[in-house]
Amino acid sequence: MNLQCALLDVHQMGEADRLSLACGKTVVQLMENAGAAVCVEIEKRWTPRPVTVLCGPGNNGGDGFVVAQRLFVAGWPVRVALLGSRGKMSSAARHHADLWQGEVEPISPAVLVGAELVVDAIFGAGLSRALEGSAAETLAAVAEQKLPMVAIDVPSGLMGDTGESLGAVASGLTVTFFRRKPGHLLLPGRLLCGEVVVADIGIPTSVLDKISPNTFANEPGLWETELPVLHLGGNKYSRGHALISGGYPMTGAARLSARAAARIGAGLTTVAVSPVALPIYAAALSSIIVQPVDSVQDLQQMLDDRRYTAFLIGPGAGVGVETRDRVVAMLKTGRPTVLDADAITVFADDPLTLDKAIVGPCVLTPHDGEFRRLFDPSGDKLTRARAAARRCGAVIILKGSDTVVASTDGRAVINCNAPPTLATAGSGDVLSGFVLGLLAQGMDPFLAACAAVWLHGAAANEFGPGLIAEDLPELLPVVLRRFQAKM
Q: Fewer CB in a 10 Å sphere around the end CB: N or C, the chain?
């Protein structure tokens, strides 16, 4: 996968540092580069003003001393505060601390008097305990006084691997190095980091080959070359045939999914519905085939037709034996299948039956509530999604403002382009339709899930306030046109 999109956990970032040292870099040099990069970003945004730099005892604190020294030389009034003593600092951090000739005060709210900008260099991403004592008090005072703050690596108290807050306060700007960490994208970390800038401090990109990251930011560079391409000699059959099991009396959900599947490129889309619901679907879906299906046996006859290339069940399906049997029938074909909403919930009392039934490519699209009904809810979002994918043998789209897509092989992406307007009824049905349409055209399930999630967010961003789910399929062509222009 595209290593430009890689996210590194705390251990992997430590390994990147170690490998860069083997390439001839020194910790002192990397620290100097890090502090210099932070200063560049500060001077882009602020004119000289009184600044307080809060330093910790580790390498993060060393970066802070570099920032203090450089801003002082540039004419900024600088005040430095240290948690602990210089004698307890790491050797490289101590080197830069000793270059600072000004006063070093103990960290306390008093060091904020007169400050118009604060640099948080107390703790980096590896902190595993809650903030306490003078560090917690001082950062709380920064928030209370509404002082603008720049965080080095992550805001102190934010866990780099999970985005969990252990007392962190929000920064307006976070400068991190080489690659972002999962905690920069996962909530609440994303909200606490503010603007995130990734600075080059001299770590060679080649170290990623040895680290082999398996977590990525969901960006087009991961999957855009795998998007289905239209060919002059193609036809509607070569573009795949998507089949949706439509619900009744909740008919709107499957109709949204059908339009989404068609808009994203499925050559044909069919909705199999109860005869009583056929007039409702047929009247609303002029370009979608509506097929009456009175029983699981009727559906099975359709599934036996190999011209259907991917299936979706769940939107508006209802939680009952009929839905459960239809899910099992679809999965038994071994063809790509998307399970959403009721098709997930219907296995809440017997999730292992679902696991056993998944024998081919499959994508599950649960929100947190649906996820908890089938899978272990403990742990951070990345860990939960990965464990669920491994257990059931399907790609998991764990939805939310920080949607995680996890593959059975351990790869995972974190999505961060979804606007809050997507919190509207039916948007999840559109997402499942996008996934279905890509699967019907033969796209790899994990990449199809990643692409669908990103395109879903991009379409919503095209509209802005006032978005409703019906708008999303109609906005997709604008987004897809940009990708077509690149080809």
A: C
